[in-house]
Amino acid sequence: MNLSPKLAAKTRSFLSANSRILLWIPTLLFLLSFFFFPLFKILTLTFNLETFTNLSNFLIARDSLLFTFYQAALSTLLTFALGLPSAVLFSKFNFPGKSLLRALTAVPFMLPTVVVAAAFNSLFSYKVTGSMLQVFNLQPSTFDLQPSTFDLQLPTFHLRPSTFNFLLILAAHTFYNTSIVIRIVGNAISRLDPKLEASARVLGADTFHVWKDVILPILRPSLLAAALLVFMFDFTSFGVILLLGGSQFATLEVEIYIRALQLPNLNLAALLSVIQLIFTLMFSILYSRAINQVSTQTAPRFSTVRPPKTIRERIFVFTLYTLLITFFALPLISLPICSLTRLEADRGQRAEVQYGFTTDYYEELFINRRGSLFYVPPVQAAVNSLGFAGITVILSLALGYPAAYALAKPTRLEKFLDPFLMLPLGASAVMMGLGFVLSFGRLIASPFFIPIAHTLIALPFVIRTLQPALASIPERLRQAASTLGASPLRVWQTVDFPILSRATLSAATFAFTVSLGEFGATLLITRPETPTIPIAISRFLSQPGGLNYGQAVAMATVLMLLTTLSILLIEKLRFNNAGEL
Amino acid sequence: MLELCNVVKSYEGKPLLRDISFTVAEGETICLLGASGSGKSTILRMIAGLDFPERGAILLNNLDLAATPPHLRDFGLVFQDYGLFPHLNVFDNIAFGLRMRRERSLTSLNALENAFCARRVHEMMELINLSGFDSRRVTDLSGGEQQRVALARALAPNPRLLMFDEPLGALDRSLKEDLLNEIRSILQQTKIPAIYVTHDQEEAFTIADRILVLHDGIIIRDGVPSEIWKDPQSAFVAKLLGIGNVIEGEIIAADKVKTAFGTFNLGCSKRIGEKLHLLMQQPPSHAGRVPDRVERRGGEVMAQIQLTVEDVLFKQDQFQVKARGGLVIHMKDAPRIGDVITVQVQVKCLS
Predict the structure, then answer these.
(1) pLDDT, tens only, A203-249
(2) Contact A195 B100 (CB under 8 A)
(3) B42-71, pLDDT tens digit by residue?
(4) How confident is the model at residue A295 (pLDDT cuts 50, 70, 90)?
(5) Hey, are the CB atoms on A204 and B72 less than 8 Å from each other?
(6) Residues A422, A460: contact at Cβ < 8 Å?
């Protein structure tokens, strides 16, 4: 009688200690075989004689590294040029349509790269600029048009195409990352105590010194954190650069892709991957340091938000408002417009161009016009994508849950393991793709590798979403419920489930949207017969002809709507659940 | 020295300050008392140049300050929640004003200047009893220490006027008293004129040479503390400063005021039938004693009233007695609850 409860307790604690280790096994095995093994493969390929004896490898590596830094620095500069005033706008002023504008600036951050690339591309196609001009009656419907300069190139800008494409890349990066600056720096600005400025002024500081000696030093950690994060995203940008610029813009990522598939030199590709990894790890360490400093300033928020008063303030708000609306809405609107606009030209030197509404491109998505064996109708790509996304959701939840559960109350060993789970965040998608190619060779023909790659990318997000929710469930709540007479099942139903369902849902959407939009890794490991939506879009974009272009834009529109809808849906569900709690 | 002339200011379309005029003399500490939201802080902000009056003028030594930006006014301002620069240590916080003035006057950052600045900062740190705190982070200091640093920071450049915006509001009671006495002695030593804003009457009576009571956008009472204590004049001032009991009465005949505590022979300048407020105080020398005579002077009368004891609270050297009708008196000996006691009181008319 006395012994059995003790024994039972012992067995239980033994089981729980063991089952904790069991929790880790699937996740660790997965990471070992699909992340660390490929990483090891890349490293062995990098550090061998062949890589180091070839001088041209180093020249290419140097050039692409320099160019990567150059474009990332320029992009970051542009992002800050737009982001800093916007951060001030959102944290200091109230104006009609503010929350809508904030949402608008945040949308691009979640959009797949192919969508953004296609959107910026469509913005400067004849169809959109032409039809917009026509709508506003700015120009007659007749253009002097050379058949060879169809779409894609811009007649009004007298820039070399490469310069123009480069500017387009910078614009797309700015489009992507401005919301980071708005969020991080804007938060810091709204946490600034207005009394600090008042104190400084009374103590004898003019406007210049108020900024130099008080405001900027206090904002420094958040400025640094935002700059590092933006720079890191620009540094590892792949889809935007490849699709808007092509292989002439050889950043590290593009060069890895080229050396892996187009001009195979796997040693070089591996070397570039290692360089890339070292830099991204460095940036992420610096970033986490900076962001730690930001979060230690736990000053309360000061509600100094007010409508603009002076004429100067009004001009500032109005100008920036217009600029932001234009910059963020135009690409998003131009994509659907472009997908629904027909452009017809007579065959002749001087063409009479007609614009019209059409659904051709969408109808075309369902047809295998060429009847070729390897050609897959776009609708099949959508089916593939949804299937992969579904598997990714299941796989990342199945692997993420045990790990998040263990990390909710981590032991010392588990705390040590935590950064390893996050390591895939530091590796670029293209590098993961390369690792897969190197490690699994022919096996890669199995379409199952695509959701595995997507899971690798989504897993850190999933764990980071689930873990705080699991940790947030206070043991006292469970105890309170059980003292009130709830059975263990009822406890789980009434306490755990409502909190977890929200987190699970948002983790699932993360995984879903990541998989739906993933481009880099998929591009390297995909087989011609199983394309995803982003791959299909990139194929259509790279082929000549109005019909291909139209289909690319149509698919990008669908993908954009799908991504936006799933995010809106989740926000909505989360809101309703929050009401229940 | 400082003079406010008919200053008007509204807040979100509603008049906040309707007509404010007062002066601060050389070396004088005035205390601005008022309920929260009465516009006390706004007055300070306008004097500091952080806000602007809609009408009226603020003069310093007869010169209009309107065109002088805050950083050239040479004033000091101490906030309730300190407003210390979180990115600077104690030394750099205190040195901030000195540095700004030096950079402005373009006397370059030479060694002599630096030494002078450091000496001044250390002087200030000694004054506020925080010597040796030079490189401490201000965010690691306690509330009282932070407020001391804020005080030293405002004092360091030797300002022409010091302003305090409820400086002790965030501190606990014992700390409050200590710091209040320190501020008082520092103000006396330095002879810097000061405006001290508070809603706490105890602080006001401790620190002020003169008290101004702000109500409804105007200054309704302006005088030295003892004067105001003796004659608050209005029911609002009496209630705000916690002076005696304010009771309601009605004039029923010439020189006769009827209240819930009896009818008094008082000559208040009101007509028959009008309602008014009366101030009922215990004469200091007669606290709790049975009176032997009844005297009468103008708008003021001594009287005996009978009270039923409802509650008795022990307060150090005396007992606070709460009586039926809401009166509060103090007695040397504790009566029992339910007792009927006779008390000598002084009754005054209030406007």
Answers:
(1) 999 889 999 999 999 999 899 999 999 999 999 899 889 888 877 88
(2) no
(3) 999 999 998 889 999 999 999 999 889 999
(4) low
(5) yes
(6) yes
A487 CB neighbour count, 10 Å cutoff: 10
Whole-number pLDDT of residue A173: 94
8 Å CB contact between B107 and B154: no
3-state secondary structure chain B: CEEEEEEEEEECCEEEEEEEEEEECCCCEEEEECCCCCCHHHHHHHHHCCCCCCEEEEEECCEECCCCCHHHCCEEEECCCCCCCCCCEHHHHHHHHHHHHHHHHCCCCCHHHHHHHHHHHHHHHHHCCCCCCCCCEHHHCCHHHHHHHHHHHHHCCCCCEEEEECCCCCCCHHHHHHHHHHHHHHHHHHCCCEEEEECCHHHHHHHCCEEEEEECCEEEEEECHHHHHHCCCCHHHHHHHCCCEEEEEEEEECCEEEECCEEECCCCCCCCCCEEEEEEECCHHHCCCCCCCCCEECCEEEEEEEEEEEEEEEECCEEEEEECCCCEEEECCCCCCCCEEEEEEEEEEEC
**pLDDT value at residue A178:** 94
Segment B84-103 mean pLDDT: 89
* CA pair distance A317, B347, nearest whole angstrom: 61
The shortest C-alpha distance from A77 to chain B (Å) reads 26
Altogether, the residues listed in chain B come to a count of 351
Per-residue pLDDT band for B287 (boundaries 50, 70, 90) equals very low
B window 227-286, beta carbon within 8 A of A = none
What are the φ and ψ backbone dihedral angles of A131, each rounded to 5 degrees? -70, -30
Token pair for A574: 């989360």
User: Residue B76 burial (CB < 10 Å; 0-12/13-18/19+)?
Assistant: buried
- How far is B181 from B187, CA to CA, in rounded Å? 10
Distance CA B270, CA B249 (A): 11
Confidence at residue A4, expressed as pLDDT on a 0 to 100 scale? 55
pLDDT score at A296: 52
CB neighbour list of residue B258: distance below 8 Å, 6 or more residues apart: B249, B250, B251, B252
Q: How far is CA A91 from CA A341, A466, B40, in A?
A: 39, 30, 27
Domains of chain B: 2-230 (3.40.50.300), 244-350 (no CATH)
- Our CA-based measurement puts residue A217 at a distance from the nearest CA of chain B, in whole angstroms, of 7
In single-letter form, the type of residue at position B135 comes to S
* Cβ contacts from A onto B, under 8 A: 75
Number of residues in chain A: 581
A306 to chain B: closest CA residue: B12
Residue B314's pLDDT band, with cuts at 50, 70 and 90, is confident
Which of A80-84, A121-125, A531-535, B106-110 tops mean pLDDT? A80-84
Going by pLDDT thresholds of 50, 70 and 90, the confidence category of residue A421 is confident
The domain spans of chain A are 20-39+359-581
Give the architecture-level CATH label for domain A20-39+359-581: Orthogonal Bundle (1.10)
Q: Which B residues, 6 through 65, put their C-beta within 8 Å of a C-beta on chain A?
A: 45, 48-50
Looking at CA atoms only, how far is residue A353 from chain B in angstroms? Answer: 57
Q: Do B85 and A204 touch (CB under 8 A)?
A: no
